[in-house]
């Protein structure tokens, strides 16, 4: 492949829609290949804005505003990085010949739980837990009663646990209904899922470059309030469970199509694997690959997008721990103990311009045998603080 320089008339341009910590790493990888990079988000000075050649602040849920910036910049590749985007803008851009990664239809399906769940379970026949959709509080009450408690209630469009709750009894239904309004996206419809009593859950990072599909080692993770706090790689799985997980990941990514990396979220009980959801882009739990793989999930995403070979080396086990702010601060300071800067650990500070309670500001990464790495990650993250 021929690589041009950025900021020239013949440059190859990528435009990132969403410019958080995951996008920041994607931009860094793109620049390593000489691409011209444009980062877009809804607020100024987002992490990827800080490393891109150009940045824009746009209401990305506004179709006209999003299209205006796409037509102005004329990117070769459009990489959605968050879910809350105007899907109509992406369909229109794709119709006009723009290359939306992995494709507008896949973005549309995955941004809405109803679309992806019905596609996975009803079109592809993949195993999932029981689910139903509701639009009213009364509907929620009836459905959760039928489904049984506990059940998991989520807005059809949201992310990182926003608007999500576990409802443990009929008394909690009204509260779950209220929480759902905090959705980042669309709370007009909710999914009610039976609680899957899994042994563990994984992300199966799956990359497609138009010629082949490759899997990373399974990533185990721990979630709190619907958001990830620790991840580790590899997750020890039985051969049968791993094969089932790869088969599901292959089926759903083939079903969605296009090029790029996907984070396939799966629940595992014994050898049984249940599909949960999928991100058509790098996954937060996959930040662990920054320390475990010769090509991180971000580098693999770029390779897949460009149609480059997907070979990489798994260096060895590791773990990651998310640091979330405890305070609101317009000039956040992340206080990292020097012990994090060791021969087998390091930290990535995202540089978010504003902190609020629960906002992820940094990640600690440890390279060691899984159990030791996880134990160390748990310990080290207590040494990261708001200052
Ligand atoms: N039906 C379920 N049964 C048991 N646990 C569940 C269920 N649904 C979700 N969870 C738990 O909540 C977590 C977050 O759920 P989910 O991935 O659907 O939400 P999300 O907001 O899209 O998260 P993210 O954007 O971080 O991936 C899951 O990883 C899992 O730990
Ligand atoms: N689970 C999805 C996920 O991790 N997305 C990552 O978080 C950013 C938003 O962070 P913010 O909420 O702090 O703005 C997104 O831009 C993306 O990088
Ligand atoms: Mg998830």
Provide a descriptive summary of the structure in words:
Involved in the de novo purine biosynthesis. Catalyzes the transfer of formate to 5-phospho-ribosyl-glycinamide (GAR), producing 5-phospho-ribosyl-N-formylglycinamide (FGAR). Formate is provided by PurU via hydrolysis of 10-formyl-tetrahydrofolate. GO terms for molecular function: ATP binding; magnesium ion binding; phosphoribosylglycinamide formyltransferase 2 activity; phosphoribosylglycinamide formyltransferase activity. This is Formate-dependent phosphoribosylglycinamide formyltransferase. The protein starts with 12 loop residues before the first strand and ends with a strand. With 387 residues, it is of the alpha+beta class. The strands form four sheets. Strands 10, 11, 12, 13, 14, 15, 16, 18 and 19 form a nine-stranded antiparallel sheet that branches. 29% of the residues lie in helices and 29% in strands. The protein has three domains: 88 residues, Rossmann fold, CATH 3.40.50; 65 residues, Dna Ligase, domain 1; 187 residues, ATP-grasp fold, B domain (D-amino Acid Aminotransferase, Chain A, domain 1, 2-Layer Sandwich), CATH 3.30.470.20.
